[in-house]
Task: inverse folding
């Protein structure tokens, strides 16, 4: 029987389960999405009813234990590390004292130093031992994983052939493989039959198998005559986000879905419980919360979350949630140029799954226009920086992604630099203003669905760069003129005019100052710019005007020789 | 919107051709300075008064002077925002010195 490809349904809860399923299979068998899709196409039964339950049991016993042990060992190492640092500090103080102390104190100090050194060595040995233990744990996990991968092919076949006998004949082999698994209840389940009280792994497999197959008679047998409840209608026993039959007795008003009904929503052949049991595997732990970046297309969602995992591992728990998630998303758009699939992007974040402490489902989609600008390496690199804005530093790219206007930030940055004679980042500021100008122009476009509308994502970056070059050029010219026209003296009045959105005052002050200049050709360049970009531009004149202040303020070593003239 | 833009280009160009090279440097500086003060005060009458006097003084045998006068006739009197644009187009034209 040929299976249908895995795909998302558009319901984030179910899709999280599908992603979790993919992650789980990848973690245990090392199959990436393509490999999994291929297998599902060729042998869906084996994947869903053979490989998956084995992977699930492996994950919640061997892997779970590995994680727990490694965490314990790491926290012990960190405790010892603290002690070691204390000892090393005191050693340093003792050595300092020794170099300054009189001879009669020397003996006593040496003794103390010797004692501390011994202690430090002991602690170092302990750290080494613990690190070795971590290695051992990893080797053990790898061995177990390899074992499962090796035997699973034949085992799965044997199991599926022995379904009628409730796996009586395959039990011996099953026992050899998973008999020693010690199941640990995952955070998202409560009182799940599989774990409470602890069931033998063999029985757990049988139960899982029939649960996935939706065979309630068999489940009833295994549960010693107890009727299946949440097995038929999944509830908070399986996932706290599902309805709770105890806490909400008025549930009949919002009739929950049965497993059969849910199955109809899924890609053909996929058992509903494969999703419910994998839900938790979709999320990554970033200190403080569990996070999944959700976009309703499996391939992108899988790729972004995979990148997120890599970023989290390399950040060593230091980076912020926002930066981590966005780095993952940006990497993905840059690589795949998948600007269209990113319009529906959510970050699903919860603090604690046991009591549904959902922090938020934040919509973070990037419009085509923004995505196409981010895709441009030069622009992205330029604004992928933090600039001081007085009270804090702001990550420009982050603000852009949040679709905030960049003008106020750059205005603050320039003011900050002018006021305190601080650093003024020309490149980032000009690119930010150029993008802002471009977006404002788009925002006020009155014609819908004309040629420009369809071309705009393609053209957006190009136009922003045109603006940028124009800005750099005029700012460089004004920087040269600044001395001639006493530029520093008009910065404050110009700023004040700009703050009051008074174009008249702005142009007036600047032109009066320019009258004093002797370099007529340079004045002509500025005047030309003023006419085209400030006077004839009602939407974004402030962006272009701020550039002139930046020019007067000076700086600009960071833009290089890009100041070519662009006339339109 | 685009018509307005074209009109401003025309006014800028004509102002440059008529007054961009008129008189000495000092004269021109004074003229622009006076015009800037008139725009600053948003005084359309004063602006026109200064401008027309200058055109009159320097328009001998200059066919563009007529064109400029008729272009100005089309846009005056105008709203405050429009006036600023027209006025600065004239000023920038003069400062460009007939070079565009």
Result:
């Amino acid at each position: 029987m040929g299976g249908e490809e895995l795909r998302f349904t558009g319901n984030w809860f179910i899709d999280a389960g599908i992603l979790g399923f993919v992650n789980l299979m990848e973690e245990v068998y090392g199959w990436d999405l393509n490999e999994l899709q291929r297998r599902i196409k060729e042998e869906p039964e084996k994947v869903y009813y053979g490989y998956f339950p084995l992977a699930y049991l492996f994950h919640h016993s061997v892997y779970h234990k590995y994680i727990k042990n490694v965490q314990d060992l790491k926290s012990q190492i960190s405790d010892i590390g603290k002690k070691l640092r204390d000892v090393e500090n005191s050693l340093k103080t003792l050595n300092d004292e020794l170099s300054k102390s009189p001879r009669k104190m020397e003996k006593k100090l040496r003794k103390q130093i010797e004692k501390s050194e011994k202690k430090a060595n002991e602690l170092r040995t302990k750290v080494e031992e613990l690190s070795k233990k971590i290695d051992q744990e990893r080797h053990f996990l790898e061995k177990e994983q390899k074992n499962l991968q090796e035997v699973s092919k034949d085992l799965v076949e044997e199991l599926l052939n022995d379904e009628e006998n409730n796996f009586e004949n395959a039990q011996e082999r099953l026992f050899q493989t998973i008999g020693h698994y010690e199941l640990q209840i995952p955070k998202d389940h409560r009182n799940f039959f599989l774990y409470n009280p602890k069931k033998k792994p063999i029985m757990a497999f049988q139960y899982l198998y029939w649960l996935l197959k939706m065979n309630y008679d068999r489940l009833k047998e295994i549960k010693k005559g107890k009727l299946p409840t949440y097995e038929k209608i999944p509830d908070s026993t399986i996932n706290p986000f599902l309805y709770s039959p105890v806490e909400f007795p008025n549930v009949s008003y919002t009739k929950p879905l049965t497993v059969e009904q849910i199955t109809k929503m899924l890609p053909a052949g996929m058992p509903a419980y494969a999703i419910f049991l994998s839900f938790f595997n979709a999320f990554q732990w970033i200190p403080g919360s569990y996070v999944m970046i959700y976009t309703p297309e499996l391939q992108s969602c899988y790729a972004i979350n995979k990148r997120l995992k890599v970023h989290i591992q390399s950040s060593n728990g230091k980076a912020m949630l926002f930066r981590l998630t966005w780095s993952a998303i940006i990497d993905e758009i840059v690589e795949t140029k998948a600007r269209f699939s990113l319009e529906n992007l959510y970050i699903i974040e919860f603090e604690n799954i046991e009591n549904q402490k959902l922090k938020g489902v934040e919509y973070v989609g990037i419009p085509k226009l923004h995505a196409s600008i981010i895709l441009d390496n030069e622009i992205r690199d330029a604004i992928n920086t933090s600039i001081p804005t007085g009270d804090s530093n702001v990550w420009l790219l982050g603000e852009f992604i949040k679709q905030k206007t960049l003008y106020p930030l750059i205005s603050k940055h320039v003011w900050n630099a002018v006021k305190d004679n601080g650093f003024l980042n020309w490149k980032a500021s000009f690119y930010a203003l150029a993008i802002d100008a471009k977006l404002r122009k788009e925002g006020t476009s009155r014609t819908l669905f004309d040629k420009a509308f369809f071309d705009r994502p393609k053209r957006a970056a190009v136009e922003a760069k045109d603006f940028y070059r124009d800005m750099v050029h005029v700012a460089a010219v004004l920087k040269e003129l600044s001395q001639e026209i006493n530029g520093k003296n008009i910065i404050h009045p110009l700023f004040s005019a700009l703050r009051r959105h008074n174009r008249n005052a702005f142009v007036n002050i600047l032109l009066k100052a320019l009258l004093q200049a002797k370099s007529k050709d340079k004045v002509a360049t500025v005047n030309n710019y003023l006419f085209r970009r400030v006077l004839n531009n009602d939407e974004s004149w402030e962006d272009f005007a701020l550039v002139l202040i930046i020019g007067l303020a000076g700086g600009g070593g960071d833009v290089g020789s890009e100041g070519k003239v662009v006339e339109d | 919107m685009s018509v307005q833009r074209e009109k401003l280009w025309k006014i800028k160009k004509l102002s440059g051709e008529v007054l961009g090279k008129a008189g000495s440097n000092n004269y021109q500086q004074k003229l622009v300075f006076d015009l800037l003060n008139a725009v600053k005060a948003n005084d359309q009458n004063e602006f026109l008064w200064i401008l027309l006097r200058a055109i009159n003084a320097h328009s001998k045998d200059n066919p563009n002077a007529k064109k400029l006068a008729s272009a100005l006739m089309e846009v005056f009197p105008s709203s405050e925002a429009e006036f600023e644009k027209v006025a600065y187009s004239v000023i920038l034209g003069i400062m460009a010195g007939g070079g565009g």
Chain B has five helices and no strands.
